[in-house]
């Protein structure tokens, strides 16, 4: 049915927004399965997952594989990770297009100074947080989504430092409407992605590493061919 890609700096309020969005969706369409995929659901820690580029790349691969296995025309998947690299968001967009479902990006646009303060407060309270060096590295490398790019569109933006994160937030209501609205010949404001040969994926078993390598190569080739 749909793939939602959460996006934001570390400690931007993204996970809280994802939880509110998931709750709002479950209330709106109780007969549809809504699942949140994040690091914790895969038993992965924050610092351990982002301590260096190799581990971070592996994390993205694990998340992408889980999304690939989970997307369908019958449920809504919310990817609650940083999704901070535009090339990775493109790969997730390709998975949505290969499945013929709706897609959107939900961006928690929080100033870095606020994110840094929230991270420090979480550290002091013993709550899930990032090592300060890891936080600064992730904040520096963050690539903002741009609604002009099809893999960042439609783009729903929330500003957690200036507005409360609740199920009734206007932007959450707007996203729920987009994700659940019935599509027919008269619908103009909802786009269901259509599969192409380049993005059509073949389902595989969890242990097929050759498939994962081949798929990553194909996605990269398409990405470069689109002159990004």
Automatic annotation (TrEMBL):
SUPFAM superfamilies: P-loop containing nucleoside triphosphate hydrolases
Cellular component, GO annotation: elongator holoenzyme complex
GO biological process entries: regulation of transcription by RNA polymerase II; tRNA modification
GO terms of molecular function: ATP binding
Entry keyword annotation includes Glycosyltransferase: no
Annotated keywords: ATP-binding, Nucleotide-binding, tRNA processing
Role noted for this protein: Elongator complex-associated factor that is not a structural subunit but rather transiently contacts the complex. Regulates both meristem activity and organ growth; acts as a positive regulator of adaxial leaf patterning. Required for an early step in synthesis of 5-carbamoylmethyl (ncm5) groups present on uridines (ncm5U) at the wobble position in tRNA.
Subunit structure: Interacts with the elongator complex. Binds to calmodulin in a calcium-dependent manner.
Entry similarity comment: Belongs to the KTI12 family.
Protein name: Protein KTI12 homolog
């Amino acid at each position: 049915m749909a793939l939602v890609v959460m996006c934001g700096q570390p400690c931007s309020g993204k996970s809280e927004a994802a939880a509110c969005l998931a709750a709002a969706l479950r209330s709106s369409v109780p007969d549809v399965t809504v699942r949140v995929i994040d690091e914790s659901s895969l038993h992965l820690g924050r610092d351990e997952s982002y301590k260096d580029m190799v581990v971070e790349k592996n994390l993205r691969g694990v998340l992408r594989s889980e999304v690939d296995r989970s997307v369908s025309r019958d449920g809504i998947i919310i990817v609650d990770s940083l999704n901070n690299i535009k090339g990775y968001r493109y790969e997730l967009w390709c998975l949505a297009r290969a499945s013929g479902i709706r897609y959107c990006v939900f961006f928690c646009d929080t100033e870095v100074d606020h994110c840094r303060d929230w991270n420090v407060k979480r550290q002091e309270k013993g709550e899930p947080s990032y090592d300060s060096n890891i936080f600064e590295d992730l904040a520096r490398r963050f690539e903002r989504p741009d609604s002009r790019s099809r893999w960042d569109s439609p783009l729903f933006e929330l500003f957690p430092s200036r507005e409360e994160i609740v199920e009734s937030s206007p932007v959450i209501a707007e996203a729920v409407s987009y994700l659940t609205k019935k599509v027919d010949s008269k619908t103009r404001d909802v786009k269901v992605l259509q599969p192409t040969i380049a993005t059509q994926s073949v389902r595989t078993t969890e242990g097929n590493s050759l498939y994962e390598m081949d798929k990553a190569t194909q996605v990269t080739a398409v990405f470069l061919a689109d002159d990004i």
